[in-house]
Amino acid sequence: xxxxxxxxxxxxxxxxxxxxxxxxxxxxxxxxxxxxxxxxxxxxxxxxxxxxxxxxxxxxxxxxxxxxxxxxxxxxxxxxxxxxx
Length: 85
Prior knowledge:
Radius of gyration: 12 Å
Number of strands: 5
CATH topology: Conserved Hypothetical Protein Mth637, Chain: A
Shape: globular
């Protein structure tokens, strides 16, 4: 699933995600290419923008891409623009 997701990210321009804050580890939990949707577990709490910062770091570290949150900064459901490094 991770390899498929990585290939998808390098082709796509946008992605919808659902964030699961306060998780035990940072990981990709679910992915559906047809719907441009992914569930991402993040250890950071949803407090003072920590989860959003952790999402950006997660994508930069694991998939070598930069993202920008275009919608849903204060929501678990987010819409991301995928930027190239």
